[in-house]
């Protein structure tokens, strides 16, 4: 998208957000040449700090193709926040929809209009103990396969050192560096024109996240775990541990009661 079409609200947001970002973070940004100069596309970005959406938006703003982030549709309805969300062209997600594809209809329309839609496929801050991307939701793959648009994998690192996941206080000193590496489009051609089953979407999502993780490996100079962290498995294991502890306590209480009756 040419810069002349960025619009008042996005420029206004940039005026407010850029100065503190420039003060707080050094920049090591690479791969801007992979951001398409025109046409609709998706970026798939890892998420490891509450402030990385602002820092990532700064990166992409400087490419001339501003990102449109997905947000709950309720945020668009009223007040200054709603006006800002609408004015900057953010994308409402209609989670009340019973049709999974319809929930992303605004994102599909944005891509068809030639916009960039930025996805955080993980859906939340990573819970991987070492900050690697975890398993992802299928929204980005749904939109990509529906529109057949380019999907640009983007990895970032550094905001998590300034404000770690779920931390309340930033670590201001020493000054941190925001590192971004955008890669070439992910090849999803083998998934096109096929029935959009759960298995197909899962496989396409894994391909997208593998590309994002590969970019992060280059930034960090390390290898990611072979199996991404899966918060669903962690929740299952937590429930299992809780049930086991409950059963142990119940058996212990029963034993004490029986011993008391025996006396």
UniProtKB/TrEMBL annotation:
Residue spans of biased composition, Basic and acidic residues class: 219-240
Region (Disordered), start-end ranges: 219-263
Coiled-coil region list: none
Signal peptide span: none
The UniProt record lists the keyword Membrane: no
Presence of keyword Transferase: yes
CDD domains, sorted: LPLAT_AGPAT-like
Organism field: Streptomyces iakyrus
Keyword annotations: Acyltransferase, Transferase
Cited SUPFAM superfamilies: Glycerol-3-phosphate (1)-acyltransferase
Domain of life, source organism: Bacteria
Name of the protein in question: Lysophospholipid acyltransferase family protein
InterPro entries registered for this protein in UniProt: Plipid/glycerol_acylTrfase
A GO MF term: acyltransferase activity
Phospholipid/glycerol acyltransferase domain boundaries: 41-159
